[in-house]
Structure formats: C-alpha cells, structure tokens
Amino acid sequence: MILYFSGTGNSGYAARRIADGLGEPLLCLNDRIKAGDTAPVETGERLVIVTPTYAWRIPRIVEDWLLHTELAEAKQAWFVMTCGSEIGDADRYNRRLCQAKGLTCMGTAQLVMPENYIAMFNAPQVEEARQIVARAEPDIDNAIAAVRENRAFPPSRRKLYDRFMSGPVNPIFYSCFVKAAAFTVGDTCTGCGQCVWRCPTNNITLQTGKPVWGQNCTHCMACICYCPAEAIEYGKKSLGKPRYHFEAL
Length: 249
Known about the structure:
Elements: E1 2-4, H1 10-22, E2 26-28, H2 29-35, E3 41-42, E4 46-52, H3 60-68, E5 71-72, E6 76-83, H4 90-101, E7 104-112, H5 126-148, H6 160-177, E8 183-185, H7 194-198, E9 204-207, E10 210-213, H8 222-226, E11 232-234
Parallel strand pairs: 1-2, 1-4, 3-5, 4-6, 6-7
Antiparallel strand pairs: 8-11, 9-10
Helix pairs in contact: 1-5
C-alpha cells in the first residue's frame, strides 16, 4: 500500500505515480489526519510512505498518525520524501519510527520537486516547475523499481550539515517558525472556504466570511497556494511571489 500526505500536490503526484507503477492501493493521509481517524489500516506487507519534507524530516503530524495507527500486516517500509532541495538526515528518524512500529526500514529516497514553501523561499514559475518535475521522473521510476524488486533504497547522504539540520535545527525550526500568526487575508477573498477544506489540522475557520487561523498550523502552505483569489499572504514574505500547487502545471 502507498500512504501519502501532501500539502500542495508534489507528494500526491509522486504517490499516484508509484501506486500506478506498482499496482498498489493508495491511501491519502490528509483525510485521516483531518478527521482524527487512527483506525487500523489493512496495508499488506509492503508500505511506501510518501511525504513532503518539513524541517528536514517527515511532517510531525504524519509521524504522530503513523505512531498511533495500527498498520495491519505491514512488515517493510520505504520512504519517499519530496523536497525543494534536500531532506537532510531524515532517514535516521524514519528508521527510528520503523523500529517503534516493528517494521523493517528499506530506506529513504529524496525526490526534488518544485519549491512550495513561500513562507521562506520562492516558488518557481510554471515552466520552471514543469522542468523540475520532468527531472524528477527518473527518480520516481527508480523508486518504483526498487520497491518492485524488494530492494532497499541507496543510503542517504549523512554529512555533518544533514545531521545538524534534521537533529537540533528541526525542533528549533518548529518552535520559532511554524506558526500561523503571519497569515493574513485581503479584500479579494471571496469566502469560498477552500483554505478551510484543505487545512489538514483544522486550523482555519471562516468568521464573517473570512479565514481565521488558529494555533495548530503545520506550514503545509495549502491555504496560501490553493487560494483561487490569491487573497492570502504570509506577512511580507509572500508578497509578489508566485503561488505553487501541482495541479497548476
């Protein structure tokens, strides 16, 4: 089974490609996490877990869901992590997670996809995004082949920088940066509720027809990148930047 979580569509696309290539069922964790649903999942022996990279590890909300959910029959797990540039030493923490779940970790594959974290970086324009996705296709094919042949992914890079970013920087980043306070909405907002519907942590409510953010943000960027009116900003950091979600390609 392919389990995936996706903020703006990169991991969703990779997961669909892998599911199609392996002929395996696909389960979207966004819906389960949003509903607080940790009911047991009949997975079969092989799991492929596809997620974006948040602060050089898998998202905390995904890790929490995996830890609290029985994955019936699962024995092996491969991780595929989409990112704008790098995943750091995420594989180390994925192996810890597998150990806690009684799974054999078959490694972590890095998949560079278009950047979406406009709270800090610039998202690409459409043509550049297409080119980045095209360059990622062979890596997706390699991941499919490894799982099909029951091979572990090649070892991830583990330089001092990688260990530092996934280690001490990760909790500092969450504590200092992963907050919703900077999100604002402008007059072009139509009150469509797209941001409310897409938020995986139920952190957004509509009040007098406008979104209001709470204290449980995971910085997936779904609200700002899917807003059809581009009415949402993240302080001054998103001003003038292109929004990105995969379906826009």
